[in-house]
Amino acid sequence: MKSIMTDESREEIQTPYRVPRHPAPVDMRLDGNEGQVVCTDVLDVVSDLAVDDLRHYPSTANLEALIAQLFGVKSEQVLVTAGADDGLLRMCRSYLSPDRDLILPVPTFEMIERFADWCFATVKTVPWTSGVYPVDAVLARLSERTGLIAVVSPNNPTGGVITSDELVRLSASCPDCMLMVDGAYAEFADEDLTKTALTLPNAVVFRTLSKALGLAGLRVGFAIGAAQVIERLRAMGMPYPVSAPSLRLAQAGLERRDQSRGYIETVRKERAVLADLLTELGLEPSSSQGNFIFARTDNAQWWRDGLAGLGIGVRAWPEKPTLRNALRLTCPGDADDFERLEKALRTIAKPEAILFDIDGVLIDVDASYRAAIIETAAHFGVSITPKDIEDCKRAGEANNDWLVTQKILAQKGVYPAFEEIKDRFEDLYWGTESTPGLCRNERLIGDRSALLRLADRFPIAAVTGRPKRDALYVLERFGILNAFSAVITMEDGPAKPDPAPVRKALDTLGVERAWMLGDTRDDIVAARTAEVLPLGVVSRARAGTDTARTQLLTQGAARVFQNWMEMEALLP
């Protein structure tokens, strides 16, 4: 049980709410439980908004009347709010205070505890990790101080529910306190509790347009309950909670709510398939009646990071001790998106191959290729630094070191012919009759025996911007060429970041799912575009290591290692 807050706990709760996300670009957001917009024609209703609609404070009366009609209640029993969150906050303001308690089954929607803390109330938590709502445990915490009991069903994040019979029993057992029934995911449940809750004298139902209608961006929700309770809630918030355009769009969405039936059914089917898939992959999903699946796993943050590397955002709680081993995945509600999610999950759990860039990952080229860039530039009267090379590589489109040299020279205002640059570079790298080649300075990164063991478990391929001659030479020199089932080089097609060489490696190996290790933006982008899990490698000795690591993560690497061998700890 939490007591009334100290100054220290007040400071903690005043920390802004932020979801801890991986920095990789995400284009499939399955971390917020937002629904699909199934009635796209709702946008038509804002085309005739008049200037006066924007000039005057908006009235919620028309939308409240529509909601009352849909749920068979009077208009005075409905309050439109700025999302269901606004309604929950009003409820806490109305029934909680320093001498009134909230009973809160956890884990649950985390803003509820914040709202209670804002009211200086005591929060009594009850474990609800799986199964049906813990009515008996809640009643055991009941006291004369209890002002409010939270009933989030289906529960976020677990997807658990309370039955109608248990809700009635709970209501009858605590006639002197209020039930805050959060039905944000009601449309996806086997049973919608709204009708039952509205027969109870001490229950208020909170609903949203964010989930089943996919209109989270409008920030529109509503509360339904006894007229005197709704009037009290109306007094506990801003008088004009929703903008005129949002009210118009929300009304159109509710009028077209039948269009969401197909989407809801799709989500329910995906939910079952996803639960089976997660079980197959070694996770422990809970039975969910929301538009999401909640699952426990030993390495939740790796799953989050791996999916982010493939452009898919899911929810994890690395900062919460009781949820550090948990994930929540929103069901996409779309066949193509679900297929992509399924492939991504299998790619993380069951890779069929491992792909390597060579330079900077398997082979240290600071004293060979990078030295050749510096010495080639010096031949043309230009002094450049390792940082110049690093900056060029980080900018992308830098998979060919001859072109990198040309690009840096051009930045310095020197424009020799490309063939001159290439010839000088090659003489430096391979050497001449009088000068030993810089290629002799290369060294193997990591342990040769570890690479050979890896090749016994997975087919491995090199995907490099090196010419074939260079690639075969260095792999043979260090005794690892036979470990590679494919070596894709400069001559095999477009250079990274084009995904073509990565896809060629997959085709050559005859696989669909792979992980790829690279040390540049081009490697990460090529892997992601080919739907291969991108992993970064940045040597500790490399200049600007912290910056390079951050950049690879923001460009899409799931994880960044100091040595490729660190990847082995994540392999199945």
How is this structure best described in words?
The protein is of the alpha/beta class and about 575 residues long. The protein has 4 domains: about 5-25 and about 40-260, 3-Layer(aba) Sandwich (Aspartate Aminotransferase, domain 2), CATH 3.40.640.10; about 260-340, Alpha-Beta Complex (Aspartate Aminotransferase, domain 1), CATH 3.90.1150; about 355-360 and about 445-570, 3-Layer(aba) Sandwich (Rossmann fold), CATH 3.40.50.1000; about 370-440. About 40% of the residues lie in helices and about 15% in strands. It contains 22 helices and 20 strands. The strands form 4 sheets. The protein has a 7-stranded mixed beta sheet, sandwiched between helices. A 6-stranded parallel beta sheet has the order 17-16-13-18-19-20, sandwiched between helices. Mean pLDDT is about 95; it is low at about 1-10.
Task: Name the features.
about 575 residues, alpha/beta, Aspartate Aminotransferase, domain 1, Rossmann fold, seven-stranded mixed sheet, 22 helices, about 40% helix
Number of helices: 22
Main sheet specs: 7 strands, mixed
Large-scale geometry: elongated
> Would you tell me the overall average pLDDT?
93
**Superfamily (CATH H level) name of the largest domain:** Type I PLP-dependent aspartate aminotransferase-like (Major domain)
In which range does the helix fraction lie?
A: 25-40%
CATH architecture of the largest domain: 3-Layer(aba) Sandwich
- Strand order within the widest sheet? 2-8-7-6-5-3-4
- CATH topology tier name of the largest domain: Aspartate Aminotransferase, domain 2
CATH class of the largest domain: Alpha Beta
The SS-based structural class is alpha/beta
Distance between the termini: 40 Å
How many DSSP E strands? 20
What proportion strand? 15-25%
Instruction: Outline the low-pLDDT stretches.
Output: 1-8
| Tally of domains | 4
Gyration radius, rounded? 30 Å
